[in-house]
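Hi W.,

Here's what went into the run:
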Amino acid sequence: MKGNSYFARKLHSLLGIIPLGGFIVVHGMANYQAFERGPEGFAKGVGLINGLPLLPLLEVVMIYLPLLFHGIYGLYVAYQSNSNTGRFKYGRNWAFTAQRITGVITFVFVFWHVYQTRLQVYMGKITHEELGSTMHHIASSPVFFALYVIGVLAAVFHFSNGLWAFLISWGITIGPKAQRVSSYICMGVFVIVSALFILSLVAFRGDEFNEVASAAIALLGNIG
Ligand code: HEM
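Here's what came out:
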């Protein structure tokens, strides 16, 4: 029983970084194309991802199953051990609590967000080409914009702070100095990856994302 729980904890910790952490970074960079290169750059990125062979299988194995295990087991661990007295110095206690709170926010945000984007494509309500305008409508609503900023900051904090803890629990940063240096690096990761997402949200507010979708729909209508 003990062995099982050790294995489950290690798997939980590993999945948070590979593949989920890797996914957050790549997703942030892909979205940032909206800021850097506008609607065409973003559409190219979406097209590239959607052109991958066996995409639904890749999504299930690399995103949805790890996300379900990491999320559900994470909630179970958080529920089981409510106190961390003595585990960390006082200064890290707030981060330990924040890790749990942001985990719950991220879990809820991701399901809602996937419903608003990816599932709409799978349900045939929008095409990949219209994702830019879908994001335009989301980011143009002040309420959704604020909820997205909260969801993004929670997810990126959860990943960056989780990375710091991962490096300790896998014996990579052992001494206090190594842990201090890694805390600066993880803070840098938090700032850079958050900026990628937030700048893309700001870019999606631009009218050009709506216009491109209307033009694509008109063109398809003409061809059809
Ligand atoms: C500015 C913030 C964000 C924007 C603009 C954004 C945009 C998008 C878009 C357009 C899609 C659909 C992609 C496609 O169908 O090709 C998508 C899917 C997805 N997003 Fe986000 N996203 C943001 C933040 C996040 C965050 C913080 C997470 C947390 C991990 C996340 C997790 C996901 C997941 C899991 C999918 C489904 C991926 C798949 O099935 O291939 N997103 N997002």
